[in-house]
Each structure stands twice: as structure tokens, then as C-alpha cells.
Amino acid sequence: xxxxxxxxxTQVCLQGCCSNPIFNTCEPQRERTTRIRSxxxxxxxxxxxxxxxxxxFPNTHFTNHESIPSLQEAYTQFAKVYxxxxxxxxxxxxRAQEYSQLAVSNHVCLDYIxxxxxxxxxxxxxxxxxxxxxxxxxxGFPFFCLTFKSVNLKSQLIHGGxxxxxxxxxxxxxxxxxxxxxxxxSMVFTANRSCAYKLVAESYPFQSSRKLLTVxxxxxxxxxxxxxxxxxxxxxxxxxxxxxxxxxxxxxxxxNMIVGKKMKKTNRGLFVFPLQSRMTGVxxxxxxxxxxxxxxxHVLFDACSLGPKEMDSxxxxxxxxxxxxxxxxxxxxxxxxxFGCLFVKKxxxxxxxxxxxxGIVSITxxxxxxxxxxxxxxxxxxxxxxxxxxxxxxxxxxxxxxxEISKMECRCLDQVDSLGLMMIGSRGRYLINWxxxxxxxxxHPNRLENCPLVTIYGPNVKFxxxxxxxxxxxxxxxxxxxxxxxxxxxxRNNISVSQGFLRHIWFPEKYEEDKHGIISRNIKExxxxxxxxxxxxxxxxxxxxxFTFLTNFHDVYxxxxxxxxxxxxxxxxxxxxxxxxxxQKTIEI
Length: 589
Prior knowledge:
Radius of gyration: 25 Å
Structural class: alpha/beta
Helix content: 40-55%
Low-confidence stretches: 1-13, 19-37, 136-140, 368-388, 390-406, 520-534
Distance between the termini: 51 Å
Strand content: 15-25%
Number of domains: 3
Number of helices: 23
Number of strands: 23
CATH topology of the largest domain: Aspartate Aminotransferase, domain 2
Mean pLDDT: 81
Shape: globular
């Protein structure tokens, strides 16, 4: 039985009023109050995990997908353990009213990272109004197009100005949403996240500040692009390592790389750092960024994996990274295209070197003339081709100021602002931890030893884990089921998940003897040892799922129920023949 204060702290924790520890900052004039709150928060976080593990299916393992509780039974128990969840019903109302397509299609979207700009109902209402009025001025809004600008990043940051009326309005709305001051930072729009990283790599003075240090536990197209450009410009590239199996940072090694030996505390290089892994959900301490700044590094802060409103408690004014990258997509669950945002501290812009600025874009109202972006796949290669097609010399066709929109409504951002960090954060925390705990309860039958269906990479149940999950599914023999196959089967069951590649994994001594066995069990040999840049790269392919503020209990339950079906040893084969019988495309196994 918990002591009274422990019990009280647990109840407080489940009410969702504890702040995320990775964002906590101390107020010197309130040291005693801060210590008390810190102690309570620590107890709260510890007991959140304990209560979650003990409240859902204690001492129970499901060995048959038909034996898992129904959606209603599971939700009743969920709401009882997390009573504050139902107080966030405003989110469900927003989802029903503004994103009705999710309810109509019954589609589970767990493959989005980031925040949308507009809502589905907003877009539909504009389309109806435009069709009725037959006017072209606003017929494209809230749809917009991106046109490439052949400009120098440094000059654009220093002398570029506010841009068109539409761009100026977008900048103001986004900077207000992220709590970024126009007095401290300049901003450019980029075609995507990858372009933002390449712009920094092309402009950063690697001749005098030679190092590039990244902290990513997974393969990222954006980071790979940055590394390739940086190497060509003479950078010495380093990467943090992550401990198996929870994927925590190997702290001592990262500290040594940041501090260095017999080096001046100036012009170290560029430190690229996220607060959370967008794939495993691991949270990292902001103090890594402070350490880097104190030892002469410029810091690029990756805000792309942060949940909605988490910038509110990040303390941007306190840490002041030199660069900040984020991205926005248009409409959740329908249109993932959008743009990237690169913020550069005004004092840092002065040290940048001249570059081509490839990837910087203008935002213009949508017209048939600019429909190429809407029809493109958004890959870097295609975007480069588009840039050459529509850019002539140093000039880019512009829409006249009279036809531009200087004021717009980003209803999705407005909704997130109105809900606030506490409600969104608590709701997401309940959902991700319920799913993680429930996945650990799925176990193959008829085995003398434990044979879990799912392996989770990253935190298990934890108060401050991010709302992203990396996992693999194993058959009854213990062999990993190809993540691509899992993704395809999920899609056929109206569930959208992604797949990725974990890397920079370090095995502690107690795992070293079984290192080869772990890797080979989790990935095919041809995938494990990939020859990349003339080097053998070792890693693990995984299935990934990510939550947004619109994710609800139905979504996470449907994913759990789908994964539970793999407890049937013949599930994959049944799916193959079922779709063959329906004359649909079969899945290669």
C-alpha cells in the first residue's frame, strides 16, 4: 500500500498536471519551492509508470488475438485509470467537426510527424465558397504553392525583408505559434525539412569551425543530406551512440565529443540536436545543448519531432540556439505536403558564408500555373527539376500584390493554441503508455520460454517518453517479420504506419556476446550490413508509429488489435490468399 503522500502524488500524476522534465527550468529566487516541486514531480513520474503497469492487464498475457478485450471493455478500463482523459473531449469534438474524413473513412493515421496548418472542414468550406463566387482571387486559398528562389541564404536572412503579404502573414502566424521573436531570429521558407538542413550545411563556415556532431538514433534523409554536403566542405563528422535496447544516449562518449581534449572553447563546429527521437520516442535533456554552447559549439535545434505546443515550455529565450528547423504540412490525414522553416539567430547570420541558397522558396496563392508542386512527390530530386523548370536566371514569376492574401486563418494552429500544452501532452502520454504496456502483453503460445510477439526499441512505459514508437513483430519461431510487410498489411487494414532504420547502436558489455544474435534476429543479413559510402553499416529496420494531437483511443486500440492478429501463426499466409481470392495484388513474402 502506498504511503499517503505517495498515493497523493500518484493521483496528481494521473490527473496530468506534471510538466515534462526535459523542459523544466529553475527559478533561482524560488529555490526551495523548486526543490519541493521537483521532488513531487519525480515521485509523480515514477508512480505514473508503476500505476500504468499494475492497472492494465496485471499478470496477464494474451496468446490469442480473439482473447484481447473489446474496444469498449478496454476503453472503460482506460478511462477509469486515466480519468482526466475524458476531460479532453474537446479534442474529439474538434476531430469530429473539423476532420470528419477521419471518422467517415475510419482511417487510423499514425504516420505523421509534425503539425498541420489547416483543417479539412476549412478547406472544404473555402472550396464551396470559391465555386459559388467563381472568383479567382481566393480560389486557391488555403492551398498555396511554392516557387523556388535563386538567392543567397545569408543575404536573404539579412536583407530579404518580410516578403509578400502572404509570406509575411505566414511568418507572423508561425513565429507566434512557436513563440519565436522576430527581434532575435530571421526566417526563410524551404521546400522541405531536408532543404533546410542542406542550406545550413552549404553556408556554415566549416573551414574555421570544422566539426559536425549529430544526435540521431535513426536514419534520416535530411541529416544524411546535411552530412554529405558538410563532408564535401571539409567538415569532420561525428555522431552520438545509443545504448541497446532502450536507445538512451551513451552519455560519457557524447560528453567527450562535446568537450574535446586540449581544444579552445571557440569555433568547435555545429551541434545538431533534437529533444526527442521522432522514431523511438526517447527524450533527451536540453542540458546537452547548454553544454555544447558553453564549449564553443553553434547549435542547430531540431524542433520537427516536438509535439504541438511543446515549444511553449522549451525556454527558447533561455537557450537561444543558433539555428532552428521545423516543418508544417497542410492538412492532417489528407495532404502531407507543406514547407520547412529555417530560423537563424540574427547574430549568427553574420558568420555564414555565401551559398547558392538552393531550396529557399516563396509562398504564393495557388494558381494553375503553379500546380506542379501539388502534383509532385516532393522528393529532393523532383524538387530540383521543378526549380530548373520554373526558375529563369535570377528572376521568378511572381503573383501581383493585389492578388495576394495578407491575412489567413490557420485553423489547425488555432485549435492547438486553444487546447494548450497540458491537455495535449497529458492525453498523448496516456495513449502512448497504454499502447506500449498493452503490446508487452502479447505473447506467442505453446512455448516453454517467454516468446513476446513484439520487441520495442526505446523506452517502455515512462512518463516523459515521446509520442513515437519503434517496434518489430516476431513469429512463433522468434524470426522478425519484415517491417515492409507489416506496413503493407496494416495499410490493407486501414492503418497507416511507417518503417525506418535504427543506427548508431552500442551494445553494453552484458549484451556484447549476444550482439550478432540480436542483430541477425531482428534484420535480414542483406539489410543489416549495408554497404554505404564504402563502409559496412549495421542497424535494425523497424516499424514506426507516431501520434498527433488528434490521435484517440480508438486509433491506438485498432493498432494493438491489428498487431495481436500476428499471434495467429497463419495470419500472414491467410492475408496473402484472401487478397488473391479477391483478385487484388498479392504481397510478396
